[in-house]
Specification:
The chain is of the alpha+beta class and 145 residues long. Helices cover 32% and strands 33% of the residues. The chain has a single domain, classed as Alpha-Beta Plaits (2-Layer Sandwich). It contains three helices and five strands, in the order E-H-H-E-E-H-E-E. A hairpin with a 6-residue loop joins strand 4 and strand 5.
C-alpha cells in the first residue's frame, strides 16, 4: 500500500459511470416498479453507496477514506432498454476516490442484475469507466468521450 502520510489533504471528487442493458420486458418491469424483489433502482442506490464505503475491504491496496458524499443517479433510456448509472464520490483526504466511484457503479450494476435475473438471463453490464476526477497533486482529469 502506498504511503500517503506526506500528501496534503485536499477536497477530492471522482465521477464514474456504467450501463446495464435489459430487454424491453425487463426494462418495463423496472420502470414501473413491478420487479418481485422490490424497487430495483432504490436498492441499487443503497448498494452503490455501501460499496463506495466498503471499497478498501474489497480492493486490497485501497486506503480507507472518510467519504463526505456519494451521489448516485440513474438514466432510463427506453429506446435502448438501458439504465445508465452515474456516481460521484467526494472526500477531503490524502488520496483520491476514483476506486470508490468505480466500485459503486459496479456494485449498483450488479444489484440491478441480481434483482432482474429471475426474468432475464442475458443482461449486459457495459462501459464502466471514470469520467472525471479533481483534487490532489496529479490535478484534474476529464475523460474525452
Amino acid at each position: 500500500m502506498v504511503d500517503v502520510s506526506e500528501k496534503q489533504a485536499t477536497n477530492r471528487e471522482a465521477t464514474a459511470a456504467g450501463t446495464v442493458y435489459l430487454n424491453a420486458e425487463t426494462f418495463g418491469l423496472v420502470k414501473r416498479g413491478e420487479m418481485k424483489k422490490g424497487d430495483v433502482l432504490a436498492v441499487a442506490q443503497v448498494s452503490g453507496i455501501m460499496a463506495a464505503k466498503s471499497t478498501p475491504e474489497l480492493i486490497p491496496m485501497c486506503h480507507p477514506i472518510a467519504i463526505t458524499g456519494v451521489d448516485i443517479s440513474f438514466t432510463l433510456d427506453e429506446n435502448q432498454s438501458s439504465i445508465g448509472i452515474t456516481v460521484t464520490v467526494r472526500c477531503k483526504g490524502e488520496t483520491g476516490v476514483e476506486m470508490e466511484a468505480l466500485t459503486a457503479v459496479s456494485i449498483a450494476a450488479l444489484t440491478i442484475y441480481d434483482m432482474c435475473k429471475a426474468v432475464q438471463k442475458d443482461i449486459e453490464i457495459s462501459n464502466i469507466r471514470l469520467l472525471k476526477k479533481s483534487g490532489g497533486k496529479s490535478g484534474d482529469y476529464l475523460r474525452k468521450e
